[in-house]
Amino acid sequence: MLDQTALPRLRTVSVTTVDQLVDAIRRLVVRGAPALGVAGALGVALAARTLDGDALVEAAAHIGAARPTAVNLAVGVRRALAVADRGPDAVLAEALAVRDEDIASCHAIGDRGATLLRELCGTEPLRLHTHCNAGALACVEWGTALGVVRSLHADGRVAHVVADETRPLLQGARITAVELSAIGVPHRIVVDGAGPSIIARGLVDAVVVGADRIAANGDVANKIGTYPLALAAARAGIPFVVAAPETTVDTATPDGDAIEIEERDPAEVLGTGTVLKSTQAWNPAFDVTPHDLVTAVVTERRTWRPGT
Ligand code: MRU
């Protein structure tokens, strides 16, 4: 797989064991909710080549627990494991079906989201704001939030995209910017703290982001720093649109309070040599945007307005 920790430098990583996959997921070599779902399913297919019975169930649980917030990981793992009694080829076929469905979903989300934004904003070409990376590299191809951007751009309807750099691992600066460059969308990255005031100054028409888990009531967990954009969008009266596949909607989770927020190594925030050795850090990787701040959740099947 492409090592997303190295981008914009291109480096690949070979994954041939479950432990290597779990390590790759934890380090964000592969990341983004839909991509985690596909990686999880393929991981079970890998394990099913050599394991069965309880040993396979245990390996699947190990993969599913690699990161807690994006529900797609557990969903992908569960789907592949569910056909294990039919043998390893069936598990692989199921994992590849997860992949293919993700590709189809992203295209549908892109088109639906593009139509919605054109209706909601009533002005074109659009100036959009996004956070983290919800593009092809976070999925299999096309992307969710960036899938919407792609669909709009294909019709010449994007003026520019403002992309938060996304501290501390810089998915916006390192990955979203690469994807937008590749497809020729004018864009600028900004420090995360600049986002809300750029919105307040009327410099963007809508915010479009992905999601890691959407609770039954429409509360949305996404990369830390998403919630301030939702607050700013509500204050400015512009749409805050969440683009995600149905697999990200977790009806078993009633609301945002029930979503486990991944706590990552404080060293990611502290960096090297920038702060006192005695300085401590706190590194929650996601936040929850309450549903009343969400203008719409766009999936491959529906446009859901959880705030109304
Ligand atoms: O920690 P990451 O990089 O896996 O976080 C990714 C995000 O927050 C994305 O916005 C989300 O997974 C949606 S990807 C289509």
From TrEMBL:
UniProt GO molecular function: S-methyl-5-thioribose-1-phosphate isomerase activity
Annotated positions binding substrate: R31, G32, A33, R67, Q171, N222, K223
Catalytic reactions on record: 5-(methylsulfanyl)-alpha-D-ribose 1-phosphate = 5-(methylsulfanyl)-D-ribulose 1-phosphate
Residues annotated as the enzyme's active site: D212 (proton donor)
One Gene Ontology biological process: L-methionine salvage from methylthioadenosine
Annotated pathway: Amino-acid biosynthesis; L-methionine biosynthesis via salvage pathway; L-methionine from S-methyl-5-thio-alpha-D-ribose 1-phosphate: step 1/6
Keywords on record: Amino-acid biosynthesis, Isomerase, Methionine biosynthesis
Site (Transition state stabilizer): C132
Pfam families: IF-2B
EC assignment: 5.3.1.23
Function of the molecule: Catalyzes the interconversion of methylthioribose-1-phosphate (MTR-1-P) into methylthioribulose-1-phosphate (MTRu-1-P).
Family, as annotated: Belongs to the EIF-2B alpha/beta/delta subunits family. MtnA subfamily.
Protein name: Methylthioribose-1-phosphate isomerase
Lineage: Bacteria, Bacillati, Actinomycetota, Actinomycetes, Pseudonocardiales
Gene encoding the protein: mtnA
